[in-house]
Write a structure and sequence with these properties.
Rossmann fold, binds 2-keto-D-gluconic acid
């Protein structure tokens, strides 16, 4: 049997490249940049399967230019840039990579929380700038993390994965989610459901874990930041557009909250210009899933889905099961 023809929009981790080369007839973008929608459409010509990044915009134009496409697999759990309805209409199965990114992303949220709360990135810049010349007792005073209150906005897989981390730090955990857990689940997890207003006003750290969709664009803006304590920190590892970045810059600039830790941005990789110069924010370049183990598991999962789709089998991580009806 001929190998399935795959187009990969950007090179991934070596172990996964090797498997792709062995098990498929591979074409891929060799440049160190993401492709445009038009370029992806051109790359997909004559291909059976499309291996795309979560950050690639995959619209109907790509599908219409390639009516024989059998499968699209997303390297990432978030699929906000994918026109899933268009794929479903055209009978194209689409997959993502759930579960495998959960712990790495929760670890990143934790790292940002620790960095923001203990002013680690500021400290690093301070030392490197050769500013550390005396041991001032007032230098870089942060927040006690152990025993503080964490507010989780969104309690999907990654939000839930924050709970054991928080418990390890003796934290009180509040949460808000579109659907509330049962009382027995809440008591098993040792967390308390609160309305958004209370979550913002009572937490020492607010960490957002809601998926980006039409309902969550700018879910957090001026009104929410205004509720936060001046001593509190804001953490975002989900998607930039969930937060009004302008409003965040304003509260950070005016020190109306203590700080923030951000791995995602509204128009990444471009940031709101003032963010680059603010001291009270730890900035990360969307590396929540960037560990060798996690990126390997993600890549292997994408390949499993692509190969299944090319064989005409059901995708193990199907996002639009309607295509099989
Ligand atoms: C990216 C992510 O997929 O899983 C997601 O939704 O945002 C990340 O894991 C990763 O950076 C590859 O683009």
């Amino acid at each position: 049997m001929p190998k399935p023809k795959i187009f990969l929009t950007r090179e991934i981790i070596p172990g996964c490249m090797e498997r792709l080369r062995e098990e498929s007839d591979l074409e891929y973008n060799r440049e160190d940049r993401n492709l445009t929608e038009q370029e992806i459409a051109a790359g997909a010509v004559g291909r059976d399967g499309l291996f795309v990044l979560a950050g690639d915009r995959i619209g109907a134009s790509i599908m219409d230019a390639n009516p024989d496409l059998k499968v699209i697999s997303i390297f990432g759990v978030g699929y906000d840039k994918m026109d899933l309805a268009a794929a479903t209409e055209r009978g194209i199965p689409v997959s993502n990579t759930p579960d495998v990114v959960t712990d790495a992303t929760a670890d990143m949220a934790w790292a940002l929380l620790m960095s923001a709360g203990r002013r680690l990135a500021e400290g690093d810049r301070y030392v490197r700038a050769r500013k550390w010349v005396t041991n001032s007792q007032k230098l870089l005073l942060g927040m006690d993390i152990f025993g503080s209150t964490l507010g989780l906005l969104g309690l999907g897989r990654i939000g839930k994965a924050m709970i054991p981390r928080a418990k390890g730090f003796g934290m009180t955990v509040l949460y808000w989610n579109r659907t509330r857990l049962s009382e027995s689940e809440e008591s098993d997890l040792g967390i308390e459901y609160v309305e958004k207003e209370r979550l913002f006003s009572e937490s020492d750290f607010v960490s957002t874990h809601v998926a980006l969709n039409a309902e969550t664009v700018h879910l957090i803006g001026e009104a929410e930041f205004a509720l936060m304590k001046p001593s509190a920190y804001f953490i975002n590892t989900t998607r930039g557009p969930v937060v009004d970045e302008n409003a965040l810059v304003a509260v950070l600039k005016e020190k109306r909250i203590a700080g923030a830790g951000l791995d995602v941005f509204e128009n990444e990789p471009t940031l709101e210009p003032e963010l680059y110069d603010l001291e009270n924010v730890t900035l990360a370049p969307h590396i929540g899933s960037a560990t060798v183990g996690t990126r390997t598991r993600m890549g292997m999962m994408v390949i499993d889905n692509l190969l299944a789709g090319c064989r005409g089998e059901r995708l193990p991580n199907i996002l639009n099961p309607e295509v099989y009806q």
